Amino acid sequence: MRYELILKSLSMEKTQNGPIIHEVTPLSERDCFYIADRKKKRFTYPIHNHKEFELNFTQNAAGVKRTVGDNSEVIGDYDLVLITGEELEHVWEQNTCESDEIREITIQFKWDFNDGTFFSRAQFDSIRRMVEQARKGLAFPMSAIMKVYNKLDTLANEENGFQSVITFLTILYELSLCEDAHTLSSTSFAKVTVQSDSRRILKVQQYVNDNFRKEIRLSDLAALVQMSPTAFSRFFKLRTGKNFSDYIIDIRLGHATRMLVDTTQSVAEICYGCGFNNLSNFNRIFKKYKQCSPKEFREQYYKKKVII
């Protein structure tokens, strides 16, 4: 089977800040996946989202700026990202890339790994965990890219439809074994429900999500899970990989960036509405974590929504 590039159709959803492009992809209910393997000189597609999962590979694109949710990174010669969040906006911008031999492979699919049927079987556990992580966007290191490169390189030219599905499943499985992939967007921006295999951590995360607008004391949360503050701090860092104060900042900033994108509220209103009690401190923290001011973030995001 040979997969040919189909012109994508678009529908536009309005927010108070301008259009969010919702992509209507060529994937039909009869297809296992859709693949487009193309050479290009520039990235011109605007920021968008879609209900389908997407595995996106780029080659010879050093200097391109990749934005997924509220995360922006300048990529190198090779980049591979999995996005499974239906409302998670993403875009690749030309930025400082000067290559005229860019290769982009986009694979879109929509499989339910929790519906009680084939893909929910134990053999797909690692892929299911990866898909869950990728609701925030998941970027893979070079070691993982090289492991699946040969299969990605030839997948679009596979003439046997059944074999192409097996190859794609193998790609997903190999990627699911990677331990160094990192998530991109913040949890609150991506609108991802908190999950944990620890009931104590889940209880704390739910409390923070419900009360991030208020003052949150370490001692109160330690008491919530019946631990001393010192023991709780160690336990939280061990389970989440983050200091408790950094975790709260991440949650508050995620909500702040989402409000900057989705509303016309002032920076000051957003600052106090997300639990920051000082505007100058909010601006300082925002710039430290996002490398730009809240105003600049809003302006940059809005520019990415303009159709070229």
What does this structure look like?
This protein is an alpha+beta fold and 308 residues long. It folds into two domains: 9-185, Jelly Rolls (Sandwich), CATH 2.60.120; 194-304, Arc Repressor Mutant, subunit A (Orthogonal Bundle). The protein is 40% helix and 19% strand. It is built from eleven helices and twelve strands. It has helices spanning 125-133, 142-155, 161-176, 187-190, 199-211, 218-224, 229-240, 244-262, 267-273, 279-290, 294-304, and strands at residues 9-15, 18-24, 34-40, 48-49, 53-59, 65-68, 71-74, 78-83, 90-93, 102-109, 138-139, 182-183. The strands form three sheets. It has a six-stranded antiparallel β-sheet with strand order 3-10-5-8-11-12. α1 (125-133) packs across α3 (161-176). The longest helix has 19 residues, at 244-262. The chain is globular, with a radius of gyration of 21 Å. It starts with 8 loop residues before the first strand and ends with a helix. Residues 1-18 have low confidence and may be disordered.
Number of domains: 2
Low-confidence stretches: 1-18
* Percent in strands: 15-25%
> What's the average pLDDT?
87
CATH architecture of the largest domain: Sandwich
Q: How many helical elements?
A: 11
Number of strands: 12
Query: In CATH, what is the homologous superfamily of the largest domain?
Result: Jelly Rolls
CA radius of gyration is: 21 Å
Shape: globular
